[in-house]
Amino acid sequence: MSFWDRIKPAPKPVSATDVQLAPDASGLSLTWEDGTRTSATAQVLRQQCPCAACVDEWTSRRTLDPGRVPADIRIQLLQPVGNYALTLTFTDGHGTGIYPWPLLREITQPQG
Description:
Elements: H1 3-7, E1 16-21, E2 27-32, E3 37-41, H2 42-47, E4 75-81, E5 85-90, E6 98-100, H3 101-107, E7 109-110
Antiparallel strand pairs: 1-2, 2-3, 3-7, 4-5, 5-6
């Protein structure tokens, strides 16, 4: 690999063009630049929280027990983080996770 190969700009990461919170705050629906629509429940999003309280910073091992996240958890607050992520606050009081677009694309499922 040459010097020039190492300094080339990275490919532009995927990003959502529209984010909709379900009327009852039970999940999110996202529309992506390529037109794909995906969604996830609040429970799945909380179970996949990438913050340091839920994932060990050194080992990347998940420390949050997904079984302890109630099925009826809701999203209280949804905020953009720059142009690259969302942060979600849940009804259990947790709100420290930053969900980058690539992670959201990975953990959300295509809508039928």
